[in-house]
Automatic annotation (TrEMBL):
Zn(2+) binds at residues 96, 98. This is Methylthioribulose-1-phosphate dehydratase. The lineage of its organism: Bacteria, Pseudomonadati, Pseudomonadota, Gammaproteobacteria, Pseudomonadales. InterPro entries: Aldolase_II/adducin_N, Aldolase_II/adducin_N_sf, MethylthioRu-1-P_deHdtase_MtnB. It holds the Pfam family Aldolase_II. Residues 10-198 form the Class II aldolase/adducin N-terminal domain. One of its GO terms (cellular component) is cytoplasm. It catalyses: 5-(methylsulfanyl)-D-ribulose 1-phosphate = 5-methylsulfanyl-2,3-dioxopentyl phosphate + H2O. PANTHER family: METHYLTHIORIBULOSE-1-PHOSPHATE DEHYDRATASE. SMART domains: Aldolase_II (SM01007).
């Protein structure tokens, strides 16, 4: 194994331990990846417990999501990762999680997007410098056909080059960053905002 792959593998394993520990990747849900080269991505295999990943639970795929390693089954959601790496060459890591708050908020929100405004923590997202900006988060309907889901995500990405993440209704969150630490920071920022939003909505009902 090359040193680059070893380091990226370790960053994915540690991300899984952190995200599982926070309760955002329960019951084998979620998938994580990191860019290996301009043409290859290191990704979690399908169906593993994400808090107990080992190096053998990762495999390389090409930018079309084709496995480059015999005998390993890539994540069912591989295409949602590779489309992001193809979209922006500067993306180095992609994280997908299944938190309670992401799931509930995406289900109670009837529209096809959420807007976060006036939260200082918005500045945790790459490219956001002030709470006065707005973070627009699309919500795509869930689909067991991941290629079809990816084909609905793509036009949004093309039309919103500043997009920092998206929700899949009743399913979970996708976000990304230049490095794994950036993607992790964005997951935490989203989770904070989801919790604020849910709390605000509950208080507004009373
Ligand atoms: C048990 S969660 C259902 C599948 C899913 O949504 C997920 O994130 C994990 O799929 P994978 O194939 O990457 O293990
Ligand atoms: Zn999922």
């Amino acid at each position: 194994m090359t040193a680059i792959r070893e380091n990226l593998a370790q960053s994915i394993i540690e991300a899984g331990q952190f995200l599982y520990g926070r309760g955002w990747s329960p019951a084998t849900s979620s998938n994580y990846s990191a860019r290996l080269t301009s043409a290859e991505v290191l990704l979690t295999v399908s169906g593993k417990h994400k808090g107990q990943l080992v190096a053998d639970d990762l495999l390389a795929v090409d930018m079309n999501g084709i496995s480059l390693e015999n005998g390993k089954k890539p994540s069912a959601e591989t295409m949602l990762h590779t489309q992001l790496y193809r979209w922006k060459p500067e993306i180095g890591a992609v994280l997908h999680t299944h938190s309670v708050n992401a799931t509930v908020l995406s289900r109670i929100c009837r529209s096809d997007s959420l807007v976060f405004a006036d939260y200082e923590l918005q500045k945790a997202f790459s490219g956001i410098a002030t709470h006065e900006s707005e973070v627009l988060v699309p919500i795509f309907e869930n689909d067991q056909d991941i290629d079809r889901l990816a084909s609905r995500v793509q036009p949004w990405l093309d039309a919103h080059p500043d997009c920092v993440g998206y929700l899949i209704r009743g399913h979970g969150l996708y976000t990304w960053g230049q490095r794994m630490s950036d993607a992790l920071r964005q997951i935490e920022a989203f989770e904070f905002l989801f919790e604020c939003e849910l709390t605000m909505r509950m208080l507004q009902r009373t």
